[in-house]
Amino acid sequence: FQQYENSLESLVSIGNICRSPIAEAVFRKLVTDEKLENKWRTDSAAVSDWNVGRFPDSRALSCLRNHGIETTHKARQITKEDFQTFDHILCMDESNLRDLNRKSNQVKDCKAKIELLGTYDPQKQLIIEDPYYGNEKDFETVYEQCLRCCKAFLEKYH
Known about the structure:
This protein has a single domain, classed as Rossmann fold, CATH 3.40.50.2300. The two termini are 14 Å apart. The longest helix has 22 residues. Helices cover 40% and strands 14% of the residues. Strand 1, helix 1 and strand 2 form a beta-alpha-beta unit. Strands 2-1-3-4 form a 4-stranded parallel beta sheet, with helices on both faces. By secondary structure, the chain is of the alpha/beta class.
């Protein structure tokens, strides 16, 4: 893969309404702030089809707004083409990782490197827990983890 010219990143969680849209919006803002938006294509998706077409959870949107970040994301399910198109597919927990590895084994010409977003956390918190059944504080924790991980990921690959 090229020297990260037009690098592509997809962030994946179970339903694509909490963690992955937060990570997507955070990474997109970091890339925009660094004036690198022409070098990255960022998206997020779900391993399940439960929430396809839905906007992110209202608590996720509120958390992002509190940090000056807007998103127009709508949930979608990961596709075979994603494994062939994206350079990196970063997920939130071991269940996502297992599901993605299983799906990628069914895709011819899979080029995506699949790993946990938490791999990049300088604080070594490998798993980004699903805040869906939690409260606003849990969404803030997810935001902070995503910010640390996305910054470290961008530093490594830019």
